[in-house]
Amino acid sequence: MTTPLHVGFIPLIDAAALIVAVDKEFAAEQGLDVTLVREVSWSNVRDKLNIGLFDAAHLLAPVAIASSLGLGHVKVPIIAPFNLGINGNAITVSPALHAALMAEIEGDAFDPMATARALARVVARRRKSGAEPLTFGMTFPFSTHNYQLRFWMAAGGVDPDEDVHLVVLPPPYMVDSVANGHVDAFCVGAPWNSIAVDRGVGHILHFVSDIFVHAAEKVLAVRQSWSEKNPQVVAALVRAASRAAEFIEHPANRAEVARILAQPERIGVDAEVIQRTLDGRLKVSPDGSIRDSGRYLLVGREGAARPDPVQAAWLYAQMARWRQTSLSPEALKTAIAVFRPDLYDAALGKTAPAVPNRPIGPFAGPAFDPNDIAGYLASFEIPRRTR
Amino acid sequence: MSAEQSPKIVIVDESPIRAAILEEGLREAGYTSVVRISEMQSLLARIYALDPDIIVIDLENPSRDILEQMFQVSRAVRRPIAMFVDQSDAASIQASVDAGVSAYIVDGLKKERIKPILDLCVSRFNAFARLQDELDRTKSALEERKVIDRAKGILMKLKGLTEEEAYVLMRSTAMREKKKIGEIAQSILTASELLK
Fold this sequence. Notes:
The structure holds two protein chains of two kinds.
Chain A: E1 3-9, H1 16-23, H2 26-29, E2 32-38, H3 42-50, E3 56-60, H4 61-69, E4 78-87, E5 89-93, H5 95-104, H6 112-129, E6 135-138, H7 144-155, E7 165-168, H8 171-179, E8 185-189, H9 192-198, E9 203-207, H10 208-211, E10 216-223, H11 224-229, H12 231-249, H13 254-262, H14 271-279, E11 281-283, E12 290-292, E13 297-298, H15 309-321, H16 329-336, H17 341-348, H18 373-378
Parallel strand pairs in A: 1-2, 1-3, 6-7, 6-8
Antiparallel strand pairs in A: 3-10, 4-10, 4-13, 5-8, 5-9, 11-12
Chain B: E1 9-12, H1 16-28, E2 34-37, H2 43-50, E3 54-58, H3 64-68, E4 81-83, H4 90-99, E5 101-106, H5 111-159, H6 163-176, H7 181-195
Parallel strand pairs in B: 1-2, 1-3
Antiparallel strand pairs in B: 3-5, 4-5
């Protein structure tokens, strides 16, 4: 007896655990007959999950929270029993902006504080000369990319709502948009940064792991009501994804995983580009320079798969910081309850780990305290309070 | 916008035929102010310039995420725009998602004025999908016809058969092997290609 499931995903490398769970038959071993449905927009994934066309989905963590809070759309409570990826995004800038930043930079180009301050100087110089504000692309209003870009530039003194333009762009349009000058930079997940570098139209300025040590990115999302009616199915899905995440993280399997993800009906880009992301070994400049990181994208290792409610609280704090919502204790409670480590533990027969979760580890600002979000947000100078 | 005026409707669709079908439907229904956008470059800027009351977008369009941005507080937005769908509209959402279309509505527009527009979009999108299906079926039938004709020609030449005999041979083989005649014809073409 198998359970048929429809699961939506966006062709990005952090959908790997779902894709491998299906294509290596880990889902079938759990009695699940999963049909993966490739989607073109986060709005579609959200809507089809909300109305039940999808049973589960690869979803931006902030969209799961926004949907549960009814922000920007219909309120449908969503839960995340499994975290599909930690980190994995990067900030890519056009060759022109890269040159401008490098002309202004004081210090190490890998230090996000140095680049953010250089950006503030570039922004000031452009304003003085009457040039158009810089435009940055990101993937969705409720996206990690939006918050990561904002966090980074604000630390250097750039107000993302006042000093630059931030625009939403679908990931497959990012590379063309930077090539034709529609945007000067973007923050997006893999493989799009690498593709911009390969085409010679972008430099990877930062891995998001330069900005945060450990940032929740995509989740396995299901409707709360559906999960309550189908607890066994949710548990089976968590086990299948967990098995896939372990498989993906094993270095000996990387080439096979890259081949699976490269299939046209999955992510549909070169296996070689995908493997760079999995290995955390990326070409960062059109001149061929390579940069390694052990934290580029985490699919399961270092506790990455276990949802951490502190991450949900942090994302909610970003929504409040950038005025997508106002702070309320009830909303915070709702946001935190989206991330369900209890379901993760129960499905895998684990007990809650004794060691605390990895902290988010932002490169600037105070440590995050989910019990005092107002105090945490008050410590930032941007957004400027004068406006 | 006065209540009597026809609302300004923007159709965002990369399929020009479907957009034309939809526009025609809207005009027939008396909506006179309809603009089509098929170029996704600077989509938001164009929408702001047009200042529509209603935006209709197809769900195969990745640019849908760009429209979601309009709900955000931003200097660029002159007035708030909210999605038509609210908690009570589950059936409408279902129908529009099934049809492959979504709509964004300026806040303040009365719901009873929107409903007929959305219903019209859903029915025209469904009609287009049926048309597309039919076209695909006709195309593949035509393709099959060509394959069968070529296979017939090969049999006639190699086995010295008449056209009628060649066809009967393929048909009886198809029946015996529980396959379609098109598949048998295709294997004849493949085999003859290999044996060339």
